[in-house]
C-alpha cells in the first residue's frame, strides 16, 4: 500500500505517529532544560554535598546530604563558627587524584547526584580568621583560645578533647584555621602543621556555607550559624 492516498495526503497510519514523536521530543527538551537549569543553580547558587565521614559529628553524620550556599560570602565575610565546604586540593588533598580520567568523571557524576562524597572537598568549622591567634592547649586550660580568649565549644563530639596536640598559629590575610567537630577523627588544619601554608586554608578555596541537612528526612534541619567571639579584637 502507498504511504499516501490517491489525493496525495499522508496515510492515517503516518498521521497517528506524528503526535507521539512530537510528545517525546517535548519531554526530552523539558528534561534537557531541567538538567541545564539544575546545573546553573548548583554551579552558582546552591549545591548539595554528600557527607562521607564522621569528622563533623555530632552535627553531620556519614550519609547526610547538605545544602550549601555558594553565594553566602558574596556580600559578607566568613565568620568564626561558620560551617564551610571547601576545595582541599593543595592543602588536605593532592592537586591530582592519580585516577584515570574516566574514574574521575564517574566520581564527579556520583557526587553531583548526591550518591558519593568527594576526596577533594571537605566540610569543617571555622575557628580562626585573618589576624586571629589560635592556640591550644595549656595545663591550666585545655580549651582552644582565640586571641587569648578560651572557646566554649558545645559542638565538639562528646568525650573528645579540644585537640590531641598543641599548636599556636597566627592566621594571615586570606587564610582560615579550620577544624572538624569530631576532633579525634578529623583531618583538618592541625594535620598540616609544618607543611607549606601551615594548615591554613585559603579563603579562595571556600565553596560555600553549609546551611541545611536535606537528607535523610528524619535528620532534616537548618544548620545554625554560631558566633564565636564576633566582638573580639584580632591580634595584628
UniProtKB/TrEMBL annotation:
Q: What is its main location?
A: membrane
E.C. numbers:
3.4.21.89
Q: Name one GO molecular function term.
A: signal peptidase activity
The family note in this entry says: Belongs to the peptidase S26 family.
Task: Write down what this protein is called.
Answer: Signal peptidase I
The keyword Protease is assigned to this record: yes
Ranges in a coiled coil: none
Cross-referenced NCBIfam families = sigpep_I_bact
Q: How does it sit in the membrane?
A: Single-pass type II membrane protein
Cross-referenced InterPro entries, in alphabetical order? LexA/Signal_pep-like_sf, Pept_S26A_signal_pept_1, Peptidase_S26
The species this protein belongs to is Arthrobacter zhangbolii
Top-level EC class, please? hydrolase
Q: Which reaction does it catalyse?
A: Cleavage of hydrophobic, N-terminal signal or leader sequences from secreted and periplasmic proteins
Amino acid at each position: 500500500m502507498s504511504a499516501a492516498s490517491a489525493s496525495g495526503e499522508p496515510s492515517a497510519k503516518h498521521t497517528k505517529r506524528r503526535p507521539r514523536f512530537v510528545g517525546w521530543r517535548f519531554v526530552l527538551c523539558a528534561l534537557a532544560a531541567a538538567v541545564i537549569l539544575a546545573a546553573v543553580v548548583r554551579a552558582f547558587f546552591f549545591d548539595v554535598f554528600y557527607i562521607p565521614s564522621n569528622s563533623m559529628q555530632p552535627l553531620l553524620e556519614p550519609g547526610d546530604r547538605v545544602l550549601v550556599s555558594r553565594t553566602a560570602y558574596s556580600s559578607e565575610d566568613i565568620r568564626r563558627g561558620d560551617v564551610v565546604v571547601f576545595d582541599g586540593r593543595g592543602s588536605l588533598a593532592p592537586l591530582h587524584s592519580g585516577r584515570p580520567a574516566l574514574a574521575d568523571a564517574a566520581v564527579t557524576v556520583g557526587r553531583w547526584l548526591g550518591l558519593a562524597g568527594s576526596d577533594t572537598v571537605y566540610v569543617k568549622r571555622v575557628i580562626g580568621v585573618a589576624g586571629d591567634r589560635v592556640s591550644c592547649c595549656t595545663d591550666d586550660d585545655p580549651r582552644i583560645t582565640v586571641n587569648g580568649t578560651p572557646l566554649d565549644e558545645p559542638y565538639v563530639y562528646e568525650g573528645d578533647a579540644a585537640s590531641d596536640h598543641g599548636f599556636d598559629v597566627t592566621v594571615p590575610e586570606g587564610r582560615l584555621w579550620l577544624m572538624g567537630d569530631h576532633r579525634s577523627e578529623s583531618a583538618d588544619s592541625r594535620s598540616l602543621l609544618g607543611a607549606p601554608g601551615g594548615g591554613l586554608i585559603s579563603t579562595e578555596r571556600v565553596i560555600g556555607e553549609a546551611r541545611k541537612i536535606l537528607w535523610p528526612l528524619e535528620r532534616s534541619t537548618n544548620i545554625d550559624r554560631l558566633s564565636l567571639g564576633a566582638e573580639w579584637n584580632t591580634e595584628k
